[in-house]
Amino acid sequence: MIYIDSNVFIYAALSPDSDEDAINSKNILKAIFEGKILASTSTLTWDEVVWAIKRFEDRETAIIEGKKFLTFPKLKILNVGEKELRTAIDLMKKYRLDPRDSIHVACCIENDIGEIVTNDSDFNNIVGVKRIPLNNVL
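Above: the chain's sequence. Below: its structure in token form.
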């Protein structure tokens, strides 16, 4: 099982089709859809994706894409609860992560997920969670 960071969904939704990150993201999402990759993400990802789409597109498009996210086949959506938030605080202190990044890593740790797919280098050097760049997944 791998964890999918929000930037995978955002690149797929907002970047031009010719963009390398968009192509890689769409291929990753297709592989999840087809069951070739076992993947999870968290409820926080929904927030980040819908917010980005609302910001760069419009509210109606954000709502449509938010509904699609919630029904994405074979994607496990992890809850963010008190346990994850307490772990996130420790991660913020230890790795100087931003709050949202620390929540994503906490979800990985609390669910025994050792890899996070993201182009965000802030996830480098996290003990126990390896960052996999988008171009290295497939």
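The chain has a mean pLDDT of 97.
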